[in-house]
TrEMBL record:
Record keyword Translocase present: no
Protein known as: Putative membrane fusion protein (Mfp) component of efflux pump, membrane anchor protein ybhg
One of the record's GO cellular component terms: cell envelope
Keywords annotated in UniProt: Coiled coil
Coiled coil: 75-109
Start and end residues of each YbhG-like alpha-helical hairpin domain: 76-201
């Protein structure tokens, strides 16, 4: 799990970029051309837990793919906590299995052996009781000897029944309330493992998106506070152009419309697709005042580039936007 904050970071680049354009002599914009600037929506990657920054494979200005290592905080404590939680889970699962299967095999074997011995004694007692009855009928033994044989016979029968009951009970699992308690202990142990693993994952952060490593805010050896961003990423799909359309032209602009974006030093313009048109009119910002724009109502418009074209754009970069003669569709690089 990671903390990712998306910030529409302007850094004053909007005003600065167009101001430089004006100072450079933009003045009156050519017909059909609107001044604008490139903007990025940045992804700030942070950990919910604080710690010392131990590993920083990400390099400022390089590109990174989603899932690649971004930074690692010290995590010895979290690793040991996960190991302990997994050991507790294994113990709880073993206890549950033991309660669900009743007595161990060795204990069952012991009961079976005792039962077999009791059955032999019962057979001998039954034979002796029958013999004593015959002897008593012939007057060869006393009443006391017959009663003793009868008692031993009945006692051996009771012993066999007792051992048979113990064997049947031993093959059953323990009481349902004990099993339910053991299952609850397993669920709690699993939750403990999940929590410990989440804590560890917070210390080992991977890139949540693919894009440019725009900035590094902490370096190896520094203490990073909880929720403090370490790296700033700029995915290509988060790069857009912003420009202001005069009130007289806004009706001719619609979402999905293609526009052409030209940059200094690049002869061929690139395409972008309009995806946002402000519903509120505003006066042209002073920084883009010119003879053609002065004191006119304008509307903010945003358009996005194809990923290939977005990789060549730089936030704050001044551009010229042309609306005329462009159809609708998906942007092409």
């Amino acid at each position: 799990m990671r903390l990712v904050a998306v910030n529409r970071r302007r850094l004053g680049l909007a005003a600065l970029a167009v101001a430089l354009c004006v100072l450079a002599g933009c003045g009156q914009a050519p017909d059909g051309v609107l001044p604008g600037y490139v903007e990025g929506e940045f992804v700030y990657v942070a950990s919910k837990l604080g710690g010392r920054l131990d590993v920083l494979p990400a390099v400022k200005g390089s590109r990174i793919a989603a899932g690649e290592p971004l930074f690692i905080l010290e995590h010895d404590y979290e690793q040991k906590a996960l190991d302990m939680a997994e050991a507790d889970l294994a113990q709880a699962e073993n206890t549950l299995r033991d309660k669900e299967k009743g007595l161990r095999a060795e204990e069952i074997d012991q009961l079976v052996a005792s039962l077999n011995r009791a059955r032999v004694i019962k057979s001998l007692a039954e034979i002796e009781h029958s013999r004593r009855e015959n002897l008593y009928a012939s007057g060869s033994v006393s009443k006391e000897e017959l009663d003793k044989a009868r008692t031993e016979h009945e006692s051996s029968q009771a012993w066999v029944r007792e051992l048979e009951a113990k064997l049947a009970t031993g093959k059953l699992p323990q009481r349902i309330d004990q099993i339910m308690a053991a299952r609850a202990a397993v669920d709690a142990a699993r939750a403990g493992v999940a929590q410990a693993r989440w804590n560890l994952e917070q210390k080992i952060q991977a890139a949540p998106v693919s894009g440019l490593v725009f900035d590094i805010l902490h370096y190896v050896g520094e203490w990073v506070a909880a929720s403090s961003p370490v790296a700033v990423l700029l995915p290509p799909e988060n790069v857009k152009v912003r420009f202001f359309v005069p009130e007289a032209l806004v009706a001719s602009v619609s979402p999905g419309q293609r526009i052409l974006v030209a940059r200094d030093g690049i002869p061929e313009p690139v395409e972008a697709v309009v995806d946002y048109i402000s519903t509120q009119a505003e006066y042209a910002p002073p920084v883009i005042f010119s003879q053609g724009f002065r004191e006119k109502l304008v509307f903010l418009v945003e358009a996005r580039f194809a990923p290939e074209a977005a990789r060549t754009m730089h936030p704050g970069q001044p551009v010229d936007v042309r609306l005329a003669g462009v159809s609708q569709g998906t942007p092409q690089p």
